[in-house]
Design goal:
- It contains eleven helices and 13 strands.
- By secondary structure, the protein is an alpha/beta fold.
- It folds into two domains: 176 residues, 3-Layer(aba) Sandwich (Rossmann fold); 157 residues, Glycogen Phosphorylase B (Rossmann fold, 3-Layer(aba) Sandwich).
- The strands form three sheets. A six-stranded parallel β-sheet has the order 10-9-8-11-12-13, with helices on both faces.
Length: 355
Amino acid sequence: MGGAYGRYWHLPMGLANLGNAVSCFCASYYPEPPPHSLFLSNDGGPPDIYWESYRLLPFLPSAWWTYYRSLANKVHEKKPQLVLAASDAFQLILGARLARRTRLPLVMDFYDDYEAYAATSVPGVRAALTRAVRDANLITCVSPHLRQKIERKYKPRCPVVILENGVSPEIYRETLKGSGLEVEGLPETAKVIGTVGGLSKLRGVNVLLDAFEYLSEDYPDLHLLLAGGLEVKLPDHPRIHYIGKLPFRQMRAVYDRLDVGVVCLKDNDFGRSCFPQKVAEYAATKTPMVFPSIGILSTQLADNWGVRVQPNNPVAMAEGILRQLDSPKCSDWMPYTWDELAGILNDMLDLHIRR
C-alpha cells in the first residue's frame, strides 16, 4: 500500500475497473506502521476498491490469529464471491483456511517460488502450504517452469494457468522519453549499463558488479547505474552510481539512460521459476538487455528478447554487455499491460469460478 506499483496493486485495480467489487487485505512484515486503510472511489464509474493493511510484528501466533479473525469478520461483512490469496506461503495458508471456514472458492497466485523464501523454512510451513494448495479451485502463476513445479510438487486438484507479469501503460508513453535523469558524476556522453530492482546476492547483482569490474579498466567511458533496494556493499568506484529507490514515475527516465539493461538472476530455484518484472519493462521501453539463461529466459521464447549468457558467470555477462554495446538488439516482444492481464484474470475467474 505504500506505492502504487506492481502485480498486487495493478491486478486488483484492473479487476475493479472491470466492474468487480474488490477488497484487498495486506500484511506488513516491516517495523514501520503501514497505512491502515485506503478507500478509492470512482464517482459514476466502476465499484469502489478498498485496501486495508495489518502490521504482523512481532511475528507471533497471536498476531496472525488477530489478523485471521479480522479477515473472517470482513468476509462476513462484505460477502465476497471468492478468496484470492497471494504473495507468500503464509498468505496462501491463511487464505486456504479462510476459504474453508467461509465455504468460498479459493484462487491462489504464485508470482514467485514461495518455497525459495527464507521464511518458508519454518518447520511445518511447507507441509501446510502443500495442504493449502490442494484446496485451491484455481491457481495462477508467472511462468511455465513455475507451473511445472506446482503441478509436480503439490499435485493440485485444479487448473494451473499462467498469468505473466505486465507493465504499466505509462511506461509506453512517448512523453516520458527524454524526461531527463541527472546523476552526479555521470557524463552525458557515457556508455551506461545497469539494473533496477532488488540489489541483492539472492538475485545475483554481485555477478553484474564483477562483470563491471572486469570491463571498467579497458572501457573508461563505461559507467554502472543502479536503482532499487540495496542489500550488498558496493565497491568504492567513481563510475558506479547508486541512485536509491525511485518512484515508478521516474523509472522511464532510468531506462532511457541505459545503453544496456541487465537482468540479475542466480541459477537457483527462485531464478528458475520467476518471470522477472524487469524483462517486461526493458522490452516495453526498447532497452537492449542482457540476461542469464535460466528458467523462462533459457527457452526459445526468449531468443529475440536480447542477449542470453551463461548464469553466475561475470565474464560471460561482460561479453554479453559488450555485444549489446557494439550492436544493440532490442526485444521485439510487446508485453501485456496490467489492465490487459486483469482482463485475462477476470475471464479465468468467469470460466473456472463464477460459471
